[in-house]
Amino acid sequence: MAPKQPVVSEKGIKSPLFSQAIIHNGTVYVSGTVGMVPSTGKIVGGSVEDRTRQALENIKNVLEEAGSSLQNIVKINIFLTDMADYAAMNKACAYSSSSCYKPEPATFHRLTREQSSISSQTQSRPDHAFASRSCLARLM
């Protein structure tokens, strides 16, 4: 069995609690990410679409560090706090992945703060911060 290889991108969100991604047997397992600017540690202001674009940029950076790309995504999970944000999120995904292979429909769930596994330091953030994305991608 091949060893697991952690992925660390200088352009990705850093955490002492989890790896940005793990490579195992030709697959990149990207950890959940939010619409946070890695250099500032702040959630992007504006709309759900803006935060979704930032989250996808974070995923792109980690995938590239791993030797993969958005085009290689085979599954993506998106967790929303409010399904009313679905259209804005979907618009950002369509824009960000216009040149990408589009996997089968993503999974969407409504999360409450209590259901969220985001660390306690985020509890003071507004509800819109609780939208997480994670994905699986094949290596090139």
TrEMBL record:
Transmembrane segments: none annotated. Pfam families: Ribonuc_L-PSP (PF01042). One of its GO terms (molecular function) is deaminase activity. Gene3D superfamilies: RutC-like. InterPro entries: RutC-like_sf, YjgF/YER057c/UK114. GO terms for cellular component: cytosol; mitochondrion. This is Uncharacterized protein.
